[in-house]
Every structure is written in structure tokens, then in C-alpha cells.
Amino acid sequence: MAAETGLLEAIREAGFVYWGLFVAFGVILAAYLVWMRKATHADEEERPSTDRTGGEDGP
Amino acid sequence: MNVQTLIFIAYFALVFLIGYFGLRKTDDEADYWIAGGNLNWLIGGSTLAATHTSAGTFIGTIGVIHTVGWSFGWLILSIPIAYFFMAAVLAPRFTRVRKLTLPHFIEGRYESRAARAVAAVIILIASVVYIQAQIVAGGLIANIVFGMNPRDGMILFTIVLIAYTVVGGMIAVVYTDFLQLVIMAVGALVAVPLAVRHLGGMPSLLELADAVNPVVFTWQGLPGTLLFTMGLAFMLGGVATPEKLIRLYAMKDMREIRKGVLFTIVIVTVVNLLVATIALTSIVMFPRLPTGDLAMPVIARAVLPTFIGALMLAAITSAMMSTVDSLLIVAGSALSEDIYQNLFHPEATHRRRLLIARVGILVVGCVPLLLTLSGVAEGRLVQFIVLLFTALMASSFFLPVVGGVLWRRANKQGAIAAMVGGLTVALGWELLGPDAIDPVLPGFLASAALLVGVSLLTPPTSQETLDVYFD
């Protein structure tokens, strides 16, 4: 409990300059994960349609 | 023989073993330059992360935070932003046609062997600057670990590096990178809690750092313009440096690239945040070092238990070696593929080109050593030498590469003008301009103006080539 209070106190004192960096990294990482999921999903949707085209044009 | 020396000897032996493995696995040039172009996300992401993490991280970042405070730590955010851009915007277009080198891509996109040769020459110039920073740091480490004279340490460090890179090529480099990344991550993960605990935990560390240096958690350590333009240099350079771009060719496909880049973002950013935290401990424990660059080696030696301290020093050495070996590969390929074969001997055999590459790596590795030994860049903080390299690369390559895949009208005249103009302005600013603005800003602006202006005044690239890079 004392350690937690000490940590909160330190956050207040060090302020945005110290902790803001960690928060900002978390936001960028979350954005990357969302984009990656979308891009992978788009890949999966594209793949069957390519296969179909190949099937129609093939011998 | 003490624990530290034993760990280093074991580490060097393992690196040489991997070099020999690389030699056995290398059948052709694709193996030598891009490890066959078939890497999965773990090995691909590891080699990208290890290449990114250099002496700039373990010596430089700590040195600058020790000197100017935590505000410099905010530049760490340039890492995830740059790699996000690389994976989402650049990689899908850049990897449509796989090449062996960045100048080879420039030739393909701009239909110009001259543009390729210009790119190769710029890579050679900038590589010398970057390798110099790592060699300086190598001398510091050898002095701490073996008690050697830093000059002898620099020579030893260069010999080890050149030996395994010349022998094993990219296959040796990616697998040593993997080993080196593991050592770096373990070293940082173990060392930080120990160093922080030494000062009574995180709250106490923040309090003490603030008490020792009241500027540490403010924005006053560096001029705002310099901080912003340095961030720009790291961001643009993070995307456009050839040793990183070539790793996109080394990975199997976009799916592996996306996962590999995620791995890189997490590992590199976390290692940097840990390292920055160690910098705070150095401010408290060693506030008056002769140079900030000594902060990390001193902490490893004086604060951490012997084994962990040795591991940390091995991690710093790994960071330096994994970056220089990648640079040597890029510089060697620039000499043999992009200059020798492209300009002088298009019919040169595969064996001949590999021989030239190996001699090239030897030469490119020795020039920065000779410059450093003769006193060039003496006394500069390692991170500022790294930053100069990043600024030169960003000013030369960011726009020709990114513009090349996003703007159809970009052509060979524009690309050559942008590369040469960007490099010249950045170098000129470094020598003559005010210190409050990093050279990347004028270099980048000059490169942008030249790419757009010259491209619009000269004929466009052929439709056939554009169809390859644009939908």
C-alpha cells in the first residue's frame, strides 16, 4: 500500500514528461494491432477470389 | 580468467560458429545478400530488431539522457511510428518486385543505372559514419571488460566483426542477429530491475533523479527545435535506411513482414524504454561522469552482480555487432553489385562478384577504424554520430524510396537530384549550420523540393515500369 502511494506520488511529481511516453507507446501499439488484424482479414478475403479466378481461367 | 572474460570468449566462439554455418548454407547471391528471401517473422523480425538496436541504444541513448534529461527519451516513439509506416505504406509496394539491394530497387523503379550507382556511393559514405560510432563504443567496452587500451579494443572489435561477416554473409548475419537480440533482451530485462532495486524501487528512483538533476523531467534539457528535428531524423531514417529496407526482401511475404515488424516494434521499443530507465539510475549514482557514454558500462561494472554485469556488457557488444554486420553487408553489396557489376563488369561471374563483395566488406570495415584511430569524431557522444548517419540516410533515401512507390510522376532525374541534393544540404548543415536544428530538416526539404521540381520538368518514367509498382 505504501509502495502504491509512493508510486502515485512519483507519477504526480514526474508528471507527463515521464509517464506520458509509456502511454503514447501503448496507443501506437494498439493502433498497429488493429491495422494488422484488418490487413490480415483483407488478405484472407482476397485469397479465395484469386483461387476462383485461377479455376475459371485454368485448363 | 574472470567471469566477464569467459562470457565474452564463449560469445565470440558462438558468433564464429554461426559464421561458419552461414558459409556452409550459402549457395548463391540471394543467400549471401538477403538470406534466400525466405525468412519467417521470428527470424526476420529479430534481425530487423537487432539491426535497429545498436550502440546508439545501449551507450548513446543512456549517454544523452544522462546529459540532457528524460525529454530525449520521447524520441523512442519515433521507433513504433516509423515501423508502422514501413509495414502499412511502404512494404506492400516496395516488395512487389524483390531485389537484392536498395540501389537495385532504385534502378528498377527509376530505369537508371546512374541512379543506382549514386545510391550505392551515398550508402558507402554514410556507412562509414555509422560504423565509426559503433567502433568508438567497441573501444569503450573492450576497455571496461578486458582492461585494454580503447584503441586496441577498437581494432579487436573490427577484426571479429569483419571476419564472420565476410565469411558467412547475410545468413550468418541474421542468425547472429537472433542470438544477439536474445542476449540484449535478456540483459536489459534482468539488469533494469536490479539497478532500480539498488535505488529503492521506481518511486524512489524518480524522486532521487529529480533531486539530483531538477531539469531531468522537464523539456528544458534540449532546445525544442532540436528535439523535434532529431525526432524527425529518427522517424524518416527509421524507414529509409538500406540495412532495414533490405530485410523486407529477406522475409517471405507480407503476412510475415507484418508480424515481423510487430515483433520489432515491441522488442525495440521495450528495450529502449528499459535502457532509458537505466539512464535515470546513472543520473542518481554517477552524476559527474567525464562523458555520458560511460554511464552504461559503469553501471554494468559497478552496480550489477558480476554475471549480470558481464551479460549486460555482452548485450552492448551484441547491439553494436548486429548493426555493423548489417551495415557491412549493405556496403559490400553496394560495392560489388551496384558499382562493380552495374558500372564496370555486367558480365562478371557469380564467384567474382562474391570475391569483390568480400574484399569490399573488408575495406568498408577498415576505413571507419582508420578514421577513428586518426582522431576523426573524437570526443563526440556516440548517439550524435548515429544521429548524423540517420539524418544523411533520411535526407538521401526517404523521398526517392517512398515517393517512388507513392507518386507516379517521380522519375530518375528527380530521384538523383533528391539523393545528391539531400545528402549535400544535410552534410553542409552539419558542418556550417546552427546546432539548434538537426541537419535532417534542411536535407529533407531540399530533397523534397528537388524530387518534385526536377521530376515535373523532365519526362516521366515509362508506363511499363510504373505498372509494376502502382495498381
Question: Can you walk through the features of this model?
Answer:
The complex is a heterodimer of chains A (59) and B (471). Chain A is built from one helix and no strands. Chain A has 59 residues and is mostly helical. Chain A starts with a helix and ends with a helix. Mean pLDDT of chain A is 70; it is low at 49-59. With 471 residues, chain B is mainly alpha-helical. Helix content of chain B is 80%, strand content 0%. Chain B is globular. The model of chain B has no long low-confidence stretch (mean pLDDT 86). At the A-B interface, helix 1 of A face helix 5, helix 9 and helix 12 of B.
Task: Present the secondary structure layout.
The complex is a heterodimer of chains A (59) and B (471).
Chain A: H1 2-57
Chain B: H1 3-25, H2 29-34, H3 41-52, H4 55-68, H5 78-94, H6 102-110, H7 113-146, H8 150-198, H9 202-212, H10 224-240, H11 242-250, H12 254-285, H13 295-302, H14 306-344, H15 350-373, H16 382-406, H17 412-432, H18 440-457, H19 463-469
Provide the descriptors you would attach to this structure in a database record.
heterodimer, A: 59 residues, 1 helix, B: 471 residues, mainly alpha, 19 helices
How would you briefly describe this protein structure?
The complex is a heterodimer of chains A (59) and B (471). With 59 residues, chain A is mostly helical. Chain A has one helix at 2-57.
* Binned strand content of chain B: under 5%
Low-confidence stretches of chain A: 49-59
**What helical percentage do the residues of chain B reach?**
over 70%
- End-to-end Cα distance of chain B: 62 Å
Oligomer: heterodimer
Number of helices of chain B: 19
DSSP E strands of chain B, number: 0
Instruction: Give the radius of gyration of chain B.
Output: 21 Å
Distance between the termini of chain A: 73 Å
